[in-house]
Amino acid sequence: MIKVIGKRHLQVLFLFLTINITDSSRLCAQFVTPKFDDRILIDLQDNRTPGQTSFFLFMSNTNKYVDAGVPAALLVGGIIDHNEAMRQNSLYVASSTAVSYGLNYLIKHIVKRPRPFIQNINIVPVYRAGGTSFPSGHAASSIAMVTSLSIAYPKWYVIAPSFLWAGTISYSRMYLGEHYPSDVASGDLLGAGSAVSLMFLKK
């Protein structure tokens, strides 16, 4: 996977995580004047390759299927195995994702931040998504799903691949030119918050 992403993209991802998650005050400033956001997206688009673009487009498209598939698999497994805890945890994971979807929809319609390629003609997306930009729905739902799954099953072999997948989803939204880094960071926080707030549903 590192070979696919490339050293340049790993450096950008590290910069994104360092600045947009650990420095909330700067995150707010970026939302008002997204010059830093613009620089990140333009740098990413200038270093795209066909292989990387295909990979990140594929990963981005897995979001809705994994979001729905994981709680469905838990439910089916719980029914087959007569496992009440697994059935309850399927409700927890599904609810966390659903709440993140609902909150994301509400915030998008309140904030109405234009997509990056609408605000800056120098940003060229891989495809032109509709709707508004803040926060990232892909980031919010994927992080909500993996956070709730990791809380329900706190094992390294669940946590590590789950967050690797969700982190790739978040990164793909910037790489594809669909969301600003601040959109993605806010979506990640929204998703994690949705999962944590519903912990009472966990068995």
TrEMBL record:
Keywords assigned:
Cell membrane, Hydrolase, Membrane, Transmembrane, Transmembrane helix
Subcellular location per the Swiss-Prot or TrEMBL entry = Cell membrane
Molecular function GO labels: hydrolase activity
Looking up Pfam families in the UniProt record yields: PAP2
Entry GO CC? plasma membrane
Q: State if Transmembrane is listed as a keyword.
A: yes
Against InterPro entries, the record matches this protein to:
PAP2/HPO, PAP2/HPO_sf
Membrane topology summary: Multi-pass membrane protein
Q: Which residues form the Phosphatidic acid phosphatase type 2/haloperoxidase domain?
A: 90-199
Predominant location:
membrane
Has UniProt tagged this entry with the keyword Membrane?
yes
In Swiss-Prot or TrEMBL terms, this protein is called Undecaprenyl-diphosphatase
| Native source species | Mucilaginibacter frigoritolerans
